């Protein structure tokens, strides 16, 4: 039985409201001997039970209860309960537990302590709570359980400890919990289970140990758990199962061992589980199934063996499972199925994603009740004629992604409703191959090699609803090919080579609703080809070669709602081509060669909502061409050759909300051009040639939200040009020629949220130009000619969150330049010529979290210039002329996460320069002139990074660092990435990387390091990438990499290494990439690579190797890339590459090997 609970609050029961205060005092002094640390979450108030007095107000928790001096306020409330009054403690940092002390028989109650930040449970903390039934300690930080922590909980039936950090279970931790039925220990860090740890839990029915780190199960760990009916041990590291681990668990019904490392199942593993109904062994490494491993599991109805390495199924292995209904064997390596492997009441069988090549004739003959069979993603090439004949109840058969090339005439039988043959190599369909499948509703033949489909091939499928023939090579459709499938409502013929559609080929498909002919070679549509499709709703003809549309060609499917003719070669639209399509809602004519639109071409489309005419050659729009489209909602005319928009051209489009006119050649907007589109929401007029805006162009567009006029040639904005656009939220004027902004140009835009003025020629900003834009959130003024910011120019922009002034000519930022931007989050000032920052320049922008000052000329940072920016997370000062960073310069930035100081001229880092940025995670000091780590001042600066203990990334590359003092990085315990390349480091102290156990990336390439101390890497237990290339290493000490158990990539090219000792790369068994090229190695010891079992890439090119020992590569079975070019090898031993079974690249060029 699986128990489910809804945890609402911390509820503890006492007898009546009138005794609340007394109960509180009594419980505090008598029961809570040692309080727990944590916070409780209160629940909403509710009514007291009928007849009980109401208690409200606050009581004070007695100070003697707690370890703290402070007094704590605890709220007392009544809550609905059938057995008494709920007592809740909230706003306290400790736990008070209450029980019923006034009744002879204590009443049972739950205690919820989940999500309370609990880290420690003191001994006997629950003593006195003998009536407790349910204890929830989930989602805390508990790491240790004292042996007697649960003493006294004799009535407890449910204990939830999931989502903690428990490492060890003491032997006797559950002693005394004789009533416990439900125990959840999932999502912890338990690695070992002691023998007999659960032995006193005689009534336990549910045990969850999933998502721990258990690797071994002792033989007696589940001793005497005879009542257990559910056990979950999934997602651990169990590799070996004891023979009798779960024997004699007669009531066990569900066992989950998935996601472990089990490779062997003992023969008699499950023999003592006669009531087991569900067994999950998926996601392990099981390769062999013992013949009788499932023997005696007479009640088993579900077995999951998916995602293992099983390659053979022994005969009769499932014959001892008379009630098995569902068997999952997918994602194994099964290549052969024996005839007598399946038997019984099986209803569901999944064999997908294996390597099955052959199906024996009678392999499924005993599965009379089978309804679902999945054989997809195998290597089946041939289906024997009667292989499915013994499956009278089969409903669903999946054979996709095989290599089937031929189908026998009588291969399919029975009550099949779903048949998937996609992604095979079927070239020919025999006549009547589907005859007899009277109930088939779905047939997928896509992605085969069908070139021809004969007439009547589907005639035996009277109930077929869905037919998929896409991605074949069909070039011809016979007139009777769809004869007999009158129930068909979905037909996909896309991605074929059909060039001609015979007349009446679709006649008889009276119920067809979806037809896809896209991506074919159809050039001509016969006049009456679609005449017999009265219910067609969706028709796709895109990506063909249609040049001409006959009159009335679509008159047959009069219920059509969706028509896609895009990506053809249509040049002319006949007047009556769409007549009869009164219900059409979507029409796509984009990407054709249409040059003109007849006046009446859309007159019949009264229901049309979406019209796409983009990417054509339309140059002129007739005055009333769109008059018959009263319901048009979205209209796309972009990427044409329209130069003039006639007055009233959109008149009649009363429902239009989205109009796209971008990428045309429109020069002028007339005053009446937008008459009649008063409901327009979005107008995109970008990438035209508009130079002037008349003063009242947009008067009719009072509901416009988005206006895009970018990428035109607008030079002047008339006063009040946008007045009347009261609802406008987005205005894009970027990439024009605007030089001046009139004072009143944005008057009336009270709802404007986003304004883009980038890439213009604006040099001056009027002092009050933005004054009335009180709702503006984003303002982009980048790439202009602004040199001066007037005082208070942005005042009034109280809601502005983003301001971009990059790529201008600003030299000075006035003290009051950003005053009033109280909600500003992001400020970009990069690529200007700012040389000085005043102390109060950022005063008032306390919400700022991103500041970019890169690519300026700032040489001095005043003290406290960043003070007040308490929320700043990103600061970029790169590419300036900073030479010195004063102590405490970043003191006012407690939340700073990312600091970029690269490409300056900083030569010295003072000891307290990073003081106050305790949350810094990313620091880039590359491309400076740091010489701070020289012998004369190393003591002074050894603690330069102290105080930034959260640092994750540090880049010191491209400086002039010569020496790294010991312990210089010791204050960075969370550092993951350290970049030191392109310096002049010649010596590494043995303990230079002390305390960097989390470092996973270290680049020290391009230095002058000649000697590596033996223990230099010993602290780097998590290092995955190490680059020591381009140094002056002449040899590698034995065991130098021993402390790098997780190293994956080691780069040592371009050194002067001449000798590789046998143990030079010892201890890096996870290594998969090793580059030793461009050295002077002459000799390879026999076993130098013997520990590198996972190595995939090895580069030994450009060395002096003359001889390859016979067994030098013997342990490199995973090696895929081996480069031995440019050496002195003269002879290749005959067996030197014998063990390299996965090698795909081998380069032996430029050696002395004789032919």
UniProtKB/TrEMBL annotation:
<dbReference type="InterPro" id="IPR050328">
    <property type="entry name" value="Dev_Immune_Receptor"/>
</dbReference>
<dbReference type="Pfam" id="PF00560">
    <property type="entry name" value="LRR_1"/>
</dbReference>
<dbReference type="InterPro" id="IPR003591">
    <property type="entry name" value="Leu-rich_rpt_typical-subtyp"/>
</dbReference>
<protein>
    <submittedName>
        <fullName>Insulin-like growth factor-binding protein complex acid labile subunit</fullName>
    </submittedName>
</protein>
<dbReference type="Pfam" id="PF13855">
    <property type="entry name" value="LRR_8"/>
</dbReference>
<keyword id="KW-0472">Membrane</keyword>
<dbReference type="InterPro" id="IPR032675">
    <property type="entry name" value="LRR_dom_sf"/>
</dbReference>
<keyword id="KW-0732">Signal</keyword>
<keyword id="KW-0433">Leucine-rich repeat</keyword>
<feature type="signal peptide">
    <location>
        <begin position="1"/>
        <end position="23"/>
    </location>
</feature>
<keyword id="KW-1133">Transmembrane helix</keyword>
<keyword id="KW-0677">Repeat</keyword>
<keyword id="KW-1003">Cell membrane</keyword>
<keyword id="KW-0812">Transmembrane</keyword>
<dbReference type="GO" id="GO:0005886">
    <property type="term" value="C:plasma membrane"/>
</dbReference>
<keyword id="KW-0325">Glycoprotein</keyword>
<dbReference type="InterPro" id="IPR001611">
    <property type="entry name" value="Leu-rich_rpt"/>
</dbReference>
């Amino acid at each position: 039985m699986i128990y489910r609970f809804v945890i609402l609050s911390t509820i503890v029961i006492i007898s009546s409201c009138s005794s609340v205060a007394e109960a509180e005092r009594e419980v505090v002094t008598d029961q809570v001997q040692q309080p727990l640390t944590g916070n409780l979450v209160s629940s909403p108030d509710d009514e007291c039970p009928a007849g009980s007095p109401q208690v409200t107000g606050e009581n004070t928790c007695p100070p003697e209860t707690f370890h703290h001096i402070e007094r704590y306020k605890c709220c007392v409330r009544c809550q609905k309960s059938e057995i008494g009054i709920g007592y809740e403690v909230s706003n306290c940092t400790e736990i008070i537990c209450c029980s019923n002390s006034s009744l002879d028989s204590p009443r049972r109650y739950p205690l919820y302590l989940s999500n309370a930040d609990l880290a420690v449970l003191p001994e006997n903390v629950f003593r006195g709570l003998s009536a407790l039934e349910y204890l929830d300690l989930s989602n805390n930080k508990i790491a240790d359980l004292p042996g007697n922590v649960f003493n006294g909980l004799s009535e407890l039936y449910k204990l939830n400890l999931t989502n903690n950090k428990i490492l060890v279970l003491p032997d006797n931790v559950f002693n005394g919990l004789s009533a416990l039925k439900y125990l959840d220990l999932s999502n912890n860090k338990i690695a070992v289970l002691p023998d007999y740890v659960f032995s006193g839990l005689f009534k336990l029915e549910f045990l969850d140990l999933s998502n721990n780190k258990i690797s071994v199960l002792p033989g007696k760990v589940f001793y005497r758990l005879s009542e257990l009916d559910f056990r979950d041990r999934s997602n651990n590291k169990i590799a070996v199962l004891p023979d009798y681990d779960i024997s004699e668990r007669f009531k066990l019904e569900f066992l989950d061992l998935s996601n472990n490392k089990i490779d062997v199942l003992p023969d008699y593993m499950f023999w003592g589980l006669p009531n087991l109904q569900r067994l999950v062994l998926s996601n392990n490494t099981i390769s062999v199934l013992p013949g009788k491993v499932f023997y005696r599991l007479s009640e088993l109805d579900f077995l999951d063996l998916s995602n293992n390495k099983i390659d053979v199924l022994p005969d009769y292995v499932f014959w001892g499972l008379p009630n098995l209904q569902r068997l999952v064997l997918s994602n194994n390596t099964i290549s052969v199925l024996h005839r007598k492997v399946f038997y019984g009441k099986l209803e569901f069988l999944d064999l997908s994603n294996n390597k099955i090549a052959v199906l024996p004739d009678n392999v499924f003959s005993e599965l009379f009740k089978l309804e679902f069979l999945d054989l997809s993603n195998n290597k089946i090439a041939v289906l024997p004629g009667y292989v499915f004949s013994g499956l009278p109840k089969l409903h669903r058969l999946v054979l996709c992604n095989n290599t089937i090339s031929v189908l026998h005439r009588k291969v399919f039988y029975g009550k099949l409703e779903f048949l998937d043959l996609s992604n095979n190599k079927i070239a020919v369909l025999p006549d009547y191959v589907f005859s007899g499948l009277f109930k088939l509703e779905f047939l997928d033949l896509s992605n085969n090699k069908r070139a021809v489909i004969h007439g009547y091939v589907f005639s035996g499928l009277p109930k077929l609803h869905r037919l998929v023939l896409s991605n074949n090579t069909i070039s011809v459709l016979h007139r009777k090919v769809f004869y007999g499938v009158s129930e068909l409502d979905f037909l996909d013929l896309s991605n074929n080579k059909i060039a001609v559609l015979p007349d009446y080929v679709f006649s008889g498909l009276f119920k067809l609703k979806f037809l896809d002919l896209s991506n074919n070679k159809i050039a001509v549509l016969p006049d009456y080809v679609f005449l017999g499709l009265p219910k067609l709703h969706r028709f796709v003809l895109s990506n063909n070669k249609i040049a001409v549309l006959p009159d009335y060609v679509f008159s047959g499917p009069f219920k059509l709602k969706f028509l896609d003719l895009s990506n053809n070669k249509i040049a002319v639209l006949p007047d009556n081509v769409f007549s009869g399509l009164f219900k059409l809602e979507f029409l796509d004519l984009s990407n054709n060669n249409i040059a003109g639109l007849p006046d009446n071409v859309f007159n019949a489309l009264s229901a049309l909502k979406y019209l796409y005419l983009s990417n054509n050659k339309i140059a002129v729009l007739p005055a009333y061409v769109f008059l018959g489209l009263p319901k048009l909602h979205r209209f796309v005319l972009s990427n044409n050759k329209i130069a003039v928009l006639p007055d009233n051209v959109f008149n009649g489009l009363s429902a239009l909300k989205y109009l796209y006119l971008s990428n045309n050649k429109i020069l002028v907007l007339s005053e009446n051009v937008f008459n009649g589109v008063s409901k327009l929401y979005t107008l995109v007029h970008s990438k035209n040639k508009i130079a002037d805006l008349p003063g009242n162009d947009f008067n009719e567009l009072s509901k416009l939200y988005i206006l895009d006029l970018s990428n035109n040639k607008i030079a002047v904005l008339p006063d009040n040009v946008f007045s009347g656009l009261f609802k406008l939220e987005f205005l894009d004027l970027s990439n024009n020629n605007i030089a001046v902004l009139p004072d009143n140009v944005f008057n009336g835009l009270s709802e404007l949220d986003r304004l883009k003025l980038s890439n213009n020629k604006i040099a001056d900003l009027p002092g009050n130009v933005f004054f009335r834009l009180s709702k503006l959130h984003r303002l982009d003024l980048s790439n202009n000619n602004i040199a001066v910011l007037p005082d208070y120019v942005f005042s009034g922009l109280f809601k502005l969150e983003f301001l971009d002034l990059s790529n201008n000519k600003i030299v000075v930022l006035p003290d009051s330049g950003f005053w009033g931007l109280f909600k500003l989050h992001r400020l970009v000032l990069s690529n200007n010529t700012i040389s000085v920052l005043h102390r109060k320049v950022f005063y008032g922008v306390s919400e700022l979290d991103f500041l970019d000052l890169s690519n300026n000329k700032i040489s001095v940072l005043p003290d406290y210039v960043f003070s007040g920016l308490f929320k700043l997370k990103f600061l970029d000062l790169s590419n300036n002329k900073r030479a010195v960073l004063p102590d405490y310069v970043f003191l006012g930035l407690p939340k700073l996460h990312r600091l970029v100081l690269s490409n300056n001229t900083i030569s010295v880092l003072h000891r307290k320069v990073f003081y106050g940025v305790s949350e810094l995670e990313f620091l880039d000091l590359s491309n400076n002139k740091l010489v701070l780590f020289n012998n004369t001042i190393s003591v002074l600066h050894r603690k330069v990074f102290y105080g930034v203990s959260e640092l994750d990334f540090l880049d010191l590359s491209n400086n002039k660092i010569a020496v790294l003092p010991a312990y210089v990085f010791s204050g960075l315990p969370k550092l993951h990435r350290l970049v030191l390349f392109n310096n002049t480091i010649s010596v590494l102290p043995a303990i230079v990387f002390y305390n960097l156990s989390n470092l996973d990336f270290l680049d020290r390439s391009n230095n002058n390091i000649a000697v590596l101390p033996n223990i230099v890497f010993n602290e780097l237990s998590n290092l995955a990438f190490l680059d020591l290339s381009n140094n002056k290493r002449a040899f590698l000490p034995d065991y130098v990499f021993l402390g790098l158990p997780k190293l994956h990539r080691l780069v040592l090219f371009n050194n002067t290494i001449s000798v590789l000792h046998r143990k030079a790369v010892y201890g890096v068994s996870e290594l998969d990439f090793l580059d030793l090229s461009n050295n002077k190695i002459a000799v390879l010891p026999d076993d130098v690579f013997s520990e590198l079992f996972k190595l995939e890439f090895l580069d030994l090119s450009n060395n002096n190797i003359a001889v390859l020992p016979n067994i030098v590569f013997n342990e490199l079975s995973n090696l895929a890339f081996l480069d031995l070019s440019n050496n002195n090898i003269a002879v290749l031993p005959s067996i030197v590459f014998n063990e390299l079974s996965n090698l795909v690249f081998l380069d032996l060029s430029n050696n002395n090997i004789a032919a």
